[in-house]
């Protein structure tokens, strides 16, 4: 912070295995707030960023975990083996940036100075800030065709279902998301019809 470097970190402490946001881990954010409080920088700008994928390489591992398997820790051998997966197409990556949150402006808005806060007040401020960032990221989330298809499939009540049933759920979701102004991927925005190839 003193040298003005950008610091990228995941507020949740890890990548979500399902793509849904999970509860924030406050450790690193608390360290940054303490550094700011101790004068490491004049202001701290926090930029909420959404990163989403059409598909993820670890789909097989996710399925194992959903069925009760344990998450295997990542290691160097897995990284080397992953090179073969990178040769295949896995769809698009979506990156969206929101307006930066200035810590100076946020504290001025609340009429506080961080140096005047007790430890308990600073912890509460840290938690509130973390949830604000996560809520902002949630509002920037982009709905992908794969996620929509999975939701429509899971909404079908039987182990067997017709294409018309699937299409009905798909169109219901599209209508609901569109009426709420939810951000859809470019492919869904231009052609929201369900076609199976």
SSE topology:
Blueprint: H1 27-37, E1 45-46, E2 49-53, H2 59-66, H3 76-81, E3 93-97, E4 101-102, H4 103-110, H5 119-140, H6 145-155, H7 163-179, H8 186-190
Antiparallel strand pairs: 1-4, 2-3
Helix pairs in contact: 6-7
N- and C-termini, Cα separation: 50 Å
Radius of gyration: 21 Å
Percent of residues in beta strands?
5-15%
The strands making up the biggest β-sheet line up spatially as 1-4
State the low-pLDDT regions, or none: none
Give the helix level as a range of percent.
Answer: 40-55%
Element order: H for helix, E for strand: HEEHHEEHHHHH
Assembly state: single chain
Task: Please count the beta strands (DSSP E, at least 2 residues each).
Answer: 4
Number of helices: 8
The main pleated sheet reads as: 2 strands, antiparallel
Broad structural category: mainly alpha
Q: For the residues shown, what is the average pLDDT?
A: 83
Rough outline: globular
